[in-house]
Write a structure and sequence with these properties.
It is built from no helices and 8 strands. The N and C termini lie far apart (37 Å). The chain is an all-beta fold and 125 residues long. The chain has a single domain (8-118), classed as Beta Barrel (Lipocalin). An 8-stranded antiparallel sheet has the order 1-2-3-4-5-6-7-8, with no helix packed on it.
Length: 125
């Protein structure tokens, strides 16, 4: 069986790194954000359409941005990413929902929605 094209390193437009391992329909890996916590890899888990022959495969994964380092305690959030892997263009297009921990009365301010594109190309800085 050929190597799964979704597996490996992916880069966002700002240089964050997404590393994926694929086993059937299961995704595992890590995410390293240049914005939130550079040089710290946060684990991720998710699912993907297991049919590797499809040119557009749906996928979803979650990341827990909980950091036990006392110098970085401000990073306490979780995020979910949902989108598609487009094998013809070798690109992952995802929409993310990021939730920061807040007091119950400030929950309205805790959610951020964004869109990311991950490619194999390391962005120039």
């Amino acid at each position: 069986m050929p190597e799964n094209r979704l597996a490996g390193k992916w880069y966002s437009g700002i240089g964050s790194t997404l590393e994926l391992e694929v086993e059937g329909s299961l995704l595992r890996g890590s995410f390293e954000s240049v914005e939130y916590s550079p040089s710290k890899k946060f684990p991720l888990v998710g699912v993907v359409d297991a049919d590797e022959g499809r040119p557009n495969r749906s996928l979803a994964f979650v990341i827990s941005w909980i950091d036990d380092d006392p110098l970085r305690k401000k990073y306490r959030r979780s995020s979910s990413y949902t989108g598609q892997f487009h094998s013809d263009d070798d690109v992952n297009r995802v929409t993310s929902l990021i939730v920061n921990e807040t007091a119950e009365k400030k929950q309205y301010a805790s959610i951020l929605v964004s869109h990311d594109v991950f490619t194999r190309d390391v962005p120039s800085r």
